[in-house]
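Why should sequence recovery work at all? Because a backbone constrains its sequence more than one might expect. Tight turns favour small or flexible residues, buried strands favour hydrophobic ones, and helices have their own preferences. The token representation captures these environments compactly. In the example below, the structure is given first.
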């Protein structure tokens, strides 16, 4: 029987409670399938670990993670630890060191999901955002000169390499071709006169190899407006690290909220493990209350199943999430319910079994 070795980094705040439900669901999928199983190894890394040890992860953490088939991550961030440390020393370190240069974020409105846009229904919002995940504005390049002095200067440099820009744009074209969808590039060439002019050029250049893919280019400010006014115009979207970070929170807001939004950090060559996570943070405002929504981590579990080649199970899980929301027997308060996190996980398992005739 095939065994998938999964490194679990539950992290801080609501991370552990939402991941526990995702793991419950993955174990049930494996049991129902019968041809594969999951072996989960838990790592205690995160902010609590940092407060005890001064480190977000072990020195040989990357080495340890290398032997896994995938990483399942909850959330990192806690009051008392600067966010740039918790983010850079764990999450961004893994994304960089494992060359997880593709961040796949589905923005899809399912039946039963709360949507703040008037008149929007299932099918009106159905896009997949491909965010560059290894360089760009989050390359960590820059300097801090004359710190604390009146002539203080900070530089935060966007890094757009030909290799990095081309490969993410090519990934998006390939996806659009495979799914027979339109492709929209979101940039900001009018103001960012080096990086985004380059981005636009590469988008056009690579596009010559994909004459069958219908393309659009939008400035990020206009794109944000259209996300709200006319989300139907987007199918596959490709954008830079920073813009992708921001517009996918907007995407989450219009398609069910942070409790439902998932993201996959892929190393498409499979040289290193890929990482799957709900895109929300540690939600300190509700941490410990056991009311966090685990559906985002279930959705990211479905992305993991897709990546392992079990697309039918991935799709089944999305169907289950939808049924759970439509039936509304167990939903957390962010979705208007009164259920606890684990009750939603149990409900997902119940509906999954029911759909499989078990
Ligand atoms: P957040 O995503 O943690 O919370 C934003 C809002 O969404 C809060 O009102 C929260 O209660 C709600 N929310 C988030 N997840 C939810 C869930 N599963 N169910 C129900 N409601 C949910 O973002 P925030 O507050 O800006 O950041 C909190 C901490 O998380 C910070 O330390 C930040 O650096 C970190 N962070 C970590 C991320 C990661 O690990 N991938 C991503 C974003 C933020
Ligand atoms: Mg974000």
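From this structural description, the recovered sequence reads:
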């Amino acid at each position: 029987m095939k065994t998938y070795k999964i490194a679990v980094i539950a992290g801080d705040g609501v991370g552990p409670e939402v991941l526990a439900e995702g793991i419950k669901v993955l174990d049930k999928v494996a049991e129902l399938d019968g041809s594969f199983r999951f072996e989960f190894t838990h790592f205690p890394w995160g902010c609590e670990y940092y407060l005890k040890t001064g480190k977000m992860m072990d020195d040989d953490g990357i080495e340890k993670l290398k032997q896994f088939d995938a990483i399942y991550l909850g959330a990192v961030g806690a009051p008392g630890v600067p966010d740039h440390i918790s983010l850079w020393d764990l999450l961004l370190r893994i994304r960089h060191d494992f060359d997880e240069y593709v961040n796949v974020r589905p923005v899809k409105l399912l039946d039963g999901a709360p949507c703040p846009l008037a008149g929007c229904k299932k099918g009106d919002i159905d896009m997949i955002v491909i965010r560059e995940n290894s360089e760009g504005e989050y390359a960590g390049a820059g300097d801090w000169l004359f710190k604390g002095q009146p002539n203080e200067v900070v530089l935060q440099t966007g890094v757009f390499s030909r290799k990095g820009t081309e490969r993410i744009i090519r990934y998006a074209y390939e996806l659009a071709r495979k799914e027979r969808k339109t492709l929209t590039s979101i940039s900001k060439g009018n103001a960012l006169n080096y990086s985004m002019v380059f981005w636009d050029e590469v988008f056009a250049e690579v596009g010559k190899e994909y004459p069958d893919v219908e393309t659009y280019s939008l400035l990020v400010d206009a794109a944000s407006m259209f996300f709200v006014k006319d989300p139907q115009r987007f199918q596959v979207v490709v954008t830079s690290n920073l813009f992708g970070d921001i517009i996918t929170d907007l995407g989450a807001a219009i398609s069910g909220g942070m409790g439902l939004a998932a993201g996959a950090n892929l190393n498409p060559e499979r040289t290193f493990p890929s990482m799957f996570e709900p895109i929300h943070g540690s939600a300190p405002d509700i941490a410990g209350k056991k009311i966090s929504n685990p559906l985002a981590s279930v959705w990211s579990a479905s992305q993991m199943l897709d990546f392992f080649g079990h697309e039918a199970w991935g799709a089944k899980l999305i169907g289950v999430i939808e049924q759970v929301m439509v039936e509304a027997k167990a939903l957390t308060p962010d979705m208007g319910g009164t259920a606890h996190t684990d009750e939603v996980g149990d409900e997902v398992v119940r509906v999954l079994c029911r759909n499989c005739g078990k």
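A few observations help interpret the result. The pocket of NAI (ligand 1) is lined by residues 14, 18, 75-77, 83, 87, 91, 258-259, 277, 280-286, 292-293, 296, 332, 334 (CB under 6 Å).
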